[in-house]
Amino acid sequence: MSLLPSSLVGCTESKSTSDTATTPASTTAPAPESVAAAPAGSFKVIGSVAQLDKEGKLASNKILVVRDPKDPNKVLAVNAVCTHKGCDVKWKSDKKQYVCPCHDAEFAADGAVIAGPAKTPLQRYASKIDKGQVLVSS
Ligand code: FES
């Protein structure tokens, strides 16, 4: 005969980590910091829109950001590491695509494969423009 104490039922399970891609409430002082140091799911400033427009791209560690060729009001962020063998892709603004210097794979601004040998798209990150700053969530 075993009697389970009813006090064992209903403990725990009160943790809720709903850290989704919502905008943080406090974005008043956008200090440029490394996106790689950001906790997952939070947006970090990686540069200004003025800087993006001047240079044609923004780069922070292995993250590259360009304007969306299909909608210039938006930005697209990808991981610069080529999915073929790991070289860093370069943004070619004249072609509006990333090109890998190692084996010439080509990727669209959103990371989609245009030409091999890479078969897998570049990793994408959520990105947005807010108050003249470019933010990326990694
Ligand atoms: S490492 Fe990029 S195409 Fe081979």
What is the second-level CATH architecture of the domain at 48-131? 3-layer Sandwich
In terms of structural class, how would the helical and strand content be classed? mainly beta
The N- and C-terminal alpha carbons lie at a distance of 54 Å
**Major sheet: arrangement of strands:** 1-10-9-4-3-2
Sheet-strand content, in percent, reads 25-35%
Please report the first level of CATH classification, the CATH class of the domain at 48-131. Answer: Mainly Beta
**Tally of helical segments:** 1
Specify the biggest β-sheet.
6 strands, antiparallel
Give a short synopsis of this structure:
By secondary structure, the protein is mostly beta strands. The chain has one helix at residues 49-55; strands at residues 43-48, 58-60, 63-68, 71-79, 90-92, 97-99, 106-108, 113-115, 124-130, 133-137.
What secondary-structure arrangement, pairings included, does this model have?
Layout: E1 43-48, H1 49-55, E2 58-60, E3 63-68, E4 71-79, E5 90-92, E6 97-99, E7 106-108, E8 113-115, E9 124-130, E10 133-137
Antiparallel strand pairs: 1-10, 2-3, 3-4, 4-9, 5-6, 6-7, 7-8, 9-10
FE2/S2 (inorganic) cluster binds at residues 82, 84-87, 100, 102-103, 105, 117-118.
